[in-house]
């Protein structure tokens, strides 16, 4: 995967745009673009990446994260997109469930890696996606085959359900519970399974990063 510095250099070389041009397009200061180009910034937020993509023809996801093709069109999940019903939006469905409490759901962000598409209201952020639940750590409320819409731009509140990942880019879907503030001023939180057979995970015991918050739950009903 390329670094942000390499991606910005490539973008500038192919489009002929200057630091000042990119700053004006993205709605940020020239010093911010200089940090993108020379470091230490490692990734971009959604808004400037989308603005740069619209003006340059590069993929917003590739600019922001380095994932996926460089030029995949206007939306980050074009490879999964189908014509959406009026007022609706296609979201990629991500799966790849892995064994173990912390490896329950792996979350690939790249376009084309979703195995299906779910349609829903166009009221979630640019990078939202569905996860398909496998495993029984969240029974009885979340069953294997259920799908949850995860929005990376929604900050979780205590009691929300979240997808979180560790440094190995492995993720788990659990209930979010705040436990306090550590000595460095960082929030300590727990990821709580609903099935008591699985352990509670704590952010002060292992490196956990919240990917996004669940904003919709679609249940799969089986018929025999």
Summarize the structure in short.
Helix content is 21%, strand content 26%.
* Sheet with most strands: 10 strands, mixed
Quickly give the CATH architecture of the largest domain: Ribbon
Determine the structural class based on helices, strands and strand pairing.
alpha+beta
Helices and strands, in order, run as HHHHHEEEEEEEEEE
CATH fold annotation of the largest domain:
Umud Fragment, subunit A
* Terminal CA distance: 45 Å
Number of separate helices: 5
Radius of gyration: 19 Å
CATH class of the largest domain, anyone? Mainly Beta
Poorly predicted regions are: 73-84, 95-103, 106-113
Structural domain count: 2
Estimate the helix proportion, in percent.
10-25%
Q: What percentage of amino acids are in beta strands?
A: 25-35%
Count the beta strands. Answer: 10
| The CATH superfamily title of the largest domain | Umud Fragment, subunit A
Overview of the molecule:
With 224 residues, the chain is an alpha+beta fold. It folds into two domains: 62 residues, lambda repressor-like DNA-binding domains (434 Repressor (Amino-terminal Domain), Orthogonal Bundle); 134 residues, Ribbon (Umud Fragment, subunit A), CATH 2.10.109. It is built from five helices and ten strands. Strands 1, 2, 3, 4, 5, 6, 7, 8, 9 and 10 form a ten-stranded mixed β-sheet that branches. Helix 1 crosses helix 3 and helix 2 crosses helix 3. The longest helix has 12 residues. It is globular. The protein starts with a helix and ends in a 6-residue tail after the last strand. About 13% of the residues have low confidence.
């Amino acid at each position: 995967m390329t670094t942000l510095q390499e991606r910005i250099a490539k973008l500038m070389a192919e489009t002929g745009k200057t630091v000042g041009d990119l700053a004006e397009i993205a709605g940020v200061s020239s010093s911010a673009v200089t940090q993108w180009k020379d470091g230490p910034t490692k990734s971009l937020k959604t808004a400037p990446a989308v603005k740069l993509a619209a003006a340059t023809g590069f993929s917003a996801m590739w600019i922001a994260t380095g994932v996926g093709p460089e030029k995949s069109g206007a939306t980050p999940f074009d490879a999964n997109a189908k014509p959406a019903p009026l007022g609706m939006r296609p979201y990629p469905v991500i799966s790849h469930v892995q064994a173990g409490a912390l490896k329950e759901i792996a979350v690939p962000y790249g376009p084309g890696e979703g195995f299906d598409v779910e349609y829903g209201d166009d009221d979630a952020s640019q990078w939202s996606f569905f996860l398909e639940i496998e495993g029984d750590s969240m029974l009885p409320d979340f069953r294997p085959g259920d799908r949850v819409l995860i929005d990376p731009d929604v900050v979780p509140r205590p009691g929300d359900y979240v997808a979180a990942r560790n440094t190995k880019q492995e993720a788990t879907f659990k209930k979010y519970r705040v436990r306090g503030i550590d000595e460095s001023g960082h929030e300590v939180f727990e990821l709580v399974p609903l099935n008591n057979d699985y352990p509670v995970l704590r952010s002060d015991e292992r490196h956990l990063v919240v990917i996004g918050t669940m904003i919709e739950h679609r249940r799969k009903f089986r018929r025999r």
